[in-house]
Fold this sequence. Notes:
globular; Arc Repressor Mutant, subunit A
Amino acid sequence: MEAHSIIDHIPRLRRYARALVGDRHSADDLVQDTLERACNKFHLWRAGSDLRAWLFTVMHNVFVNQVRSARYQLEQAVEEVPVVLVRETQGDALELAEVERALRRLPAEQREVLLLVAVEQMSYAEVSRALSVPIGTVMSRLSRARERMRAAMAGGNPAVSLKVVK
């Protein structure tokens, strides 16, 4: 394994991780865990295949495992820690915060697909391979994510704005 081939993908991994988890420190931890897992499991990567897609698959799996673990720990916790939200004061920062909040409200499956397609500019096929889901699932999750984002950004209720198909 050549270190520079993985190193070249770290900025994209960090950007995706930041969008998944929301803060820089947790994103750095997710990237670190991803790189550690990738190094330990590098023998599973098929030479000649897309290293970027494989790294995103590894990150997806690490993220899912962390979410499951956090859910379990939360269920086991007796005390709840209050969350304090701090609102930005500048217009651009407010708009960015609104987009981030809308992203946070998306189900994880939809958020992952939206970020991989819109931010990382991966093809549906690449996302399908990275997340181990059919292309049709990628397309439907992306469609739902876009609709919910549009509704959230327009100030509507995403759950209400979805059309009922008979």
